[in-house]
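Minutes, project check-in
Item: structure for the 133-residue chain
Input as provided by the requester:
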Amino acid sequence: MTQEEKMALLQGMFAGADLNGVRQIIGVNEGEVCYQKDCKGGGDAGDGAQKAVTVKVRAKVLLELMKRCGMGLDTRDRTKVCRLAAILMGCDYKALLNTVSDGIRLNERTHSDEVKQVNALLKDLEADYRLDF
């Protein structure tokens, strides 16, 4: 899937929403895809650019957004849901499927900073969802 197709899919899923926060959360930043935790997000260094988050955190948020769009793991084929999520996140769908099957558990010590970052963005977007441990 090309970057343009990913962006079109995001825009279709979140029509009318400000996608800047969504892009930062799932790792799609202004024309580039973030594949690693330590990659730099889009934007200027002076604007307080957010650091990318791990696959677990991205998956938890993206799967919740997909669920709210009617494409959740509880209503659709898990493999297909994980394939789409993996394409959008730039990760291996089999690893994501295994993670989802075991349940995505966030560790407070490991993911604390990421959860704070994501929850701040969700708050700015006036979302009614927050990550927890």
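Outcome recorded: Helices lie at 3-13, 20-26, 55-68, 78-89, 93-102, 108-124.
No further action items on this chain.
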